[in-house]
Automatic annotation (TrEMBL):
InterPro entries: PB1-like_dom_pln. It comes from Morella rubra (Chinese bayberry). It comes from the Eukaryota. Residues 12-105 form the PB1-like domain. It holds the Pfam family PB1-like. Residues 121-143 are annotated as: Disordered. This is PB1-like domain-containing protein.
Amino acid sequence: MVIVLRKRKMIMKVLIHHGGKFKWGEEYIGITNKIGWINVDYVSTIELMSCVNGLGYLYVGYMWYSLNDNPMTEVKPLLDDTKVVEMQQRVHKELHKTFHISLEHLVDLLTIVKPDADLGEETDVGESEELGRDTNLDDEGVC
């Protein structure tokens, strides 16, 4: 006789908090986007980053998550898929229904253009040691 145990299908509401700041232990002040409903067993960092990119963010410092109704309680890092697996195990054990993701932003990379350059195209400004040097200045920085 073979006994097959099936894991319960856990569907969760996903909310992404971004563009604001936390008052730790109190509240979140910023934008909250409802991403939709997901099967927690199919969550990965790649899928989460795709959702974040869909909000217009190219770079994210860290992602944090909370499984309670209040996103300010028990905030945990969501650094890689090992942390996603830990989160999935908690969901199955504790039967949570809401998945809050909070983003810590990085400043997007700066693009430097020449003053007379067409703003529609990027301009190569040379090697990093040349940045900030004006070619019209002599060695002492005088015109």
